[in-house]
Structure to design on (171 residues):
């Protein structure tokens, strides 16, 4: 089983919520400038968020993935200064590890699956951030954004990949 090493101080839920709340009420007209800034500061990440899942995700699901990815970046960008650039190799490496984890989990019974997920989360360095992002994804249907159950799992894997990459590069 693959676990992420501890390289970033674990964020607490209060910090995550405060960062999210400060951005949640952004004027929709501000989103393109945030995406542009992300492209300037994290070009590989923007490319990843825009291209990943193109063959399986609906337009609404791709928009949710991009929005959540931008929000993860904004949360971390607001807490840490001088974040180095995530590379394409980092994104590929962590995505491959996360897909291997997903494939491993797919072969387990429901009870083994839940036990294994709990073990993974107990050793994961950013459990609060990942749980928070998953909870926000769960709210998307209430906002009229349809996320299929099958694709929800892949969106979580893609966003976990983003978190893992930041976890690697933030001191």
């Amino acid at each position: 089983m693959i676990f992420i090493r501890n390289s970033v101080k674990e964020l607490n839920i209060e910090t995550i919520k405060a960062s999210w709340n400060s951005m949640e009420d952004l004027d929709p007209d501000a989103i393109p400038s945030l995406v542009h800034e992300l492209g300037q500061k994290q070009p590989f990440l923007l490319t990843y968020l825009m291209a990943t899942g193109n063959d399986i995700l609906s337009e609404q699901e791709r928009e949710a993935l991009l929005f959540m990815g931008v929000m993860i970046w904004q949360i971390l960008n607001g807490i840490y200064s001088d974040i180095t650039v995530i590379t394409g190799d980092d994104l590929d490496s962590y995505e491959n590890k996360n897909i291997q984890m997903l494939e491993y989990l797919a072969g387990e019974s429901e009870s083994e699956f839940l036990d294994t997920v709990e073990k993974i989360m107990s050793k994961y360095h950013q459990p609060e951030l990942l749980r928070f992002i998953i909870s926000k994804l769960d709210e998307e249907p209430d906002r009229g954004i349809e996320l299929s159950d099958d694709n929800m799992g892949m969106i979580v894997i893609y966003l976990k990949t983003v978190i893992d990459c930041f976890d690697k590069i933030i001191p």
Remarks:
- The first helix runs from residue 13 to 24.
- The chain has a mean pLDDT of 86.
- The radius of gyration is 15 Å.
- Residues 64 and 137 are 8 Å apart (CA to CA).
